[in-house]
Design goal:
594 residues, alpha/beta, Spore Coat Polysaccharide Biosynthesis Protein SpsA, Chain A, 2 domains, two-stranded antiparallel sheet, 23 helices, 15 strands, globular, 2-C-methyl-D-erythritol 4-phosphate cytidylyltransferase activity
Length: 594
Amino acid sequence: MSKIEEKSTKEIENKDDILNKDNINNKHIYDNNKENDIFNKYNTKQYEKIIKKKNIHSILLCGGIGKRTELIGPKQFLKLNDIPLFIYSFNLFIKCNLIKSLTLVCDKKHFSCIIHSINVYNQLLLKRKMINSFLKNGNDKLNINLKECDQDEKDNIKDFSSQKINLGENHFNDDSNIIDYIHKNTYIIYDNEKNKCILDMQELLNDLSKDIKIRKKKEINEINEKHEKNEIHEKNEKHEKNEKNEKNEKDEKDEKDEKDEKHIIQIKQKHINVNRYKLLKIVESGKERLDSFLNAMKSIDIELDSQMYIYELLKKYIQGKNNKNDNISYEFEDVNINKCNKNYNSNNDSMQNNNIKDKKEEKKKKIHITNILIHDGARPFLSEIDFFNLIYYSTLDKNVILGSKATDTIKLIQHEEENKKKTTSPFIKKTIDRDTIFQAQTPQIFDSKTLHNNILTYILPMKNNEKKIKQTNINIINDNNYPNSEQQHNKQFTDTSSLYQYFNKSKKKKIFVLQSNFPNFKVTTPEDVLHSFFLMKYIYNYKFIDIEESIFKDEYINSHSSYILKKQFNNFFFYDALNEKQKILYHKFYYSSK
């Protein structure tokens, strides 16, 4: 190869890898002065459409048994600042409007405990975030009385402590009801307004009916207000008083008639707010992390329309209910049931159903889930800003993983199998350039179609092809192209990105890296447990959030890249640093309570 050709090849490689390097330094995220063609691909209106269509399914892996942490119980239930460890990540995902559904993977015997933990502790965490202004919008001002907040916090902890969950005893009266519901239904519905899981369809129906009535009443009031404004100048005060009296009498009469008459409430699919109501699935964990991930992937249906699922679930509930004595009658619009019948009838594995379908039929099916996000439940320190950045890149059609660039000197050491004596420590083989090392963390987000189809086609056993698939699995781990034991060891998949890369040979489907701004470590060892206790106590205790900024240089304090600890978990402080598209995403990012 000539020097000119070699130079041009390097230029192309550098150009392709520029997003990778900029992700590590977060240059594009915080530098508004630099225009970049990649981020100006879509205009504002097109970008809003992209956000509207974005439908992310999140997988939260909580199958750890505490083997390496030396804990007496599962580490996902470890209380950090009185809140179970996995709730910190769950809280971020469930309130994000772009995440419509979530799969939580854990030990089967803890299914009911997971639901109780969500119902009890997620609400407490939200209150703490509000107290610390973590959920405050850009220009809002929260006047908080610290003494009152301190007392409220003590009262909250006292109340929630009385509801502590004992993993060793099934002392909850409705444990059997939860397990029964999970077996009968594919998904549990989570209500972001009430901050709890809804297991009673009548409760969901009542809430939906109230919303419909409020919406109708609001529309009628707006029409009446317009009429009143037009007529107010033509009427005298006396006439106006008489009219109000007549109106009050009419309202009283209508209320009496309403009690005697049977109401008809029309429920339409559009009435179901998918930002408020999220679909939650609980799946049994496997022996290893990879097995747990595959169990979750096996249960995902990328054609799932969460709005239609909830609609058809309510419709089925009303059809099976004897409501002759009720004063309310519900009417449902005609919807093509074929689109969603597999979603609500049973808890069958969606992939097995998909394999039987015709290819022609598959082309007609619409893929509703656009992306799949995977996160370790044992990483409770995922910050608001890192999560926001990851989702932002996914809206730009990027596969992204969160992680950190190596700062220590990296050494390649002797493998345990090669160290036959085992009486001495392994020796250093060579020093690796740390500039090329990136330590992968989670969350990791990928396009759903590629991850679901390309990977599962190779891994998941099919009914008529079990032997072939089993052999394929063996070949994946013990690839003939890697006869050396060290190379074989490296072929084991410890994260989703390695799986994605292995099965997707297309150069177009790259995976980009994003530097985390906070120590997003995984609680793995006893030392991690101790560190997490100290760190979490500091973050959520507003008495100690003031850091002496004078220890830093003025250039750092005044820059957008000054990640002071107290700001790490706030989703508002970085607003002024966002570009135009990011600000659009920001305003649509989290669920706002009514």
